[in-house]
Amino acid sequence: MSLLTVNGLSVHSPDGRALVRDLSFSIGPGERLGLIGESGSGKSLTALAIMGLLPAGMTVSGSVVLDAPGMPATEVVGAPSRRLDRLRGRAATTVFQEPLTALDPLMRVGRQVAEPLRRWRGLRGAALREATLSALTEVRLSDPERIARAYPHEISGGQRQRVAIAMALACEPALLIADEPTTALDVSVQADVLSLLANLIAARGMSLLFITHDLAVVAGVTDRVLVMRDGTAVESGTVLDIVTAPREPYTRDLVDSARTFDEALNRRKP
Amino acid sequence: MSASVSVPVRAPARRRRSVTLTVGCVLAGLIVALAIVSLFWLPYPPSDVSGGRLAGPGGGHLLGTDKLGRDLFTQLMIGSRIALAVGSGAVALGGILGVAAGLAAGFATRWLDDAIAAALDILIAFPVLLVAMLLVAARGASLASAIVAIGLGSSAVVARLTRVLVKRILSQDFVTAARTSGTSWPRIVLEHVLPNVWPTLVVNLALQLGVAVLAEASLSYLGLGAPPPNESWGRMLQEAQATVLTAPLGAIAPGVLLILLVIGVNLIADGLRDVADPTRRRSR
Ligand SMILES: Nc1ncnc2c1ncn2[C@@H]1O[C@H](COP(=O)(O)OP(=O)(O)OP(=O)(O)O)[C@@H](O)[C@H]1O
Ligand SMILES: [Mg+2]
To answer: Where would I find the ABC transporter domain in this sequence (chain A) (predicted)?
Structure first.
């Protein structure tokens, strides 16, 4: 049985437009899937639908089943919020695109990281402090003591995204959904955060749903790719398949643009 | 490897914040002290008219007397009590009702939210004066009626602000992020929504306090406020209008105290906001 099974998922806006249409895929334990598509193709909505957190007024149909170890398999679509509260965090959690807005501006970073540790591991007092600092160290933040005491606006963008990753990992999720976690970052910082994420996922044997519109980014992190366009899946396969033999014209465009980018980079090298 | 570190500039910000708070506390504290002393001691009994009409300052009357011969300073002391009672009472009532209604609307489903928003607009358009008249008709003129009428008026304003703030915060990523890690709604309200609403709200509440004290003045003028011989500053101001050229102190003194109180409370609110919102603490 897969950890996440999405079957015939559709999302309609309040005014009846189909934003996601008949989407089906699954992610097994330890598996890493890339969800790729242009802006507005419904990637973020798919991620929210998996968490049961779609904006009010949107209607969902189809099925999203989360079956995490140690938890009863749960159908997310139509589940009451209290049941999902127990599931969210442990079964799956999310890292968002914009690290500044994903952290509460009025709460010290340390407290924000401590919150999931307190709830999910039941830590208190000195043990909680200890775990918070080691969670910050684990995402390779130097001087975790200072970072823990800082407010989000007092640290850099890359540091914020590391903090957001630490917060997500503190839940010890079976599935991590990363919604364009590096798009808002500087290119050099992007690579750092990406390799950090890949290493942590591998070390913990977590599953990953990695959302991006950049094929070059997804290639280094995931095994399989699902290409989305206008709310539907147009193609799926291994990264190698997609890159070497894209079937859909849209996918071919993505591959071409990734290649152009690569060539441009290579040309600049001596 | 990692990006450059933004160094928080802490020291000057902290000084500035304490200056704001300190000055605010001194100004408002002056009025509070007057009010407290007035509970135990007054220079003259409130209705004593032995000083003669419109006596100048000095000669047993620190600030002189009003047109009925009552000691001005005594009136001011009693007035400070009324101003604080009206201000804090109306703001407490308006704050509690307003935040509760605003939170409810912020979280409500669309049609309920629309209903609350419409009700608030009607309430805001509904003059405080009319509410006060209805209350006075029902319960008689008293300080309590004035406080309730003014408090209801400010609760609508507070509720409308809270509703907008709550909606804005609920749409932020960090709320969704907290939700994806399994935080329940009550916790989100306590730990994320209220702390983020507070810095803006506290400044608005301070404004409401000034508005409340002034509103009481108009209510007193119409005989809808605290009944005599308890003169509020507002009523003193209005009664001194006729004699402002011959005895200007009668208008100036309550006006100055009113301004000191409003400025003091607003400075305190600014200070509290800066304490609550670390992003404002950078040096400016
Ligand atoms: N709250 C909303 N109400 C109505 N429509 C929405 C809402 N959120 C998103 N949409 C629409 O749904 C579509 C898919 O949005 P989504 O955010 O999933 O795109 P995306 O693939 O994540 O794009 P990007 O790469 O830019 O993040 C878009 O056309 C968008 O306009
Ligand atoms: Mg998106």
So the answer is: 4-255
